[in-house]
Amino acid sequence: MDTHQNHRITVCTSCKHKGTDCRPGFDLIQRLSAAIAAAGAAIPEGFEIAGVACMAGCDRPCTVAYHASKKATYLFGDIDPDEDINDLVAFAQHYATLNDGWCSSLDRPGKLRKSTLARVPAAMIELRPSHLRAS
Length: 135
What we know:
By secondary structure, this protein is of the alpha+beta class. Helix content is 21%, strand content 19%. Helix 1 crosses helix 2.
């Protein structure tokens, strides 16, 4: 287990709840940053939180992604800054311990079991010489 990897949580800042101008991403970044800091040693160093303009989860605001080098990436939707902080922190703790980032839905805390929009496998580097690759 490499807990010194650079892990990142990316939060959509443009998601809006339907029929409102509410953009919960900025609030979620602040609350999640405070919760990660409060978790102290329970979250490995190098866990960054950043905002991004769009992750194409517009129908399921607010979207949040977890990613790290050589690990599967997770995209969650329907995240509420008022209700889901503890689940997000718990998943950060768990995700940091996974060698390849892969876990079943049963291993994800609370609402994250059912709000997964995508699990993208880590990119694999092809080691065959270029002259052996199919055209």
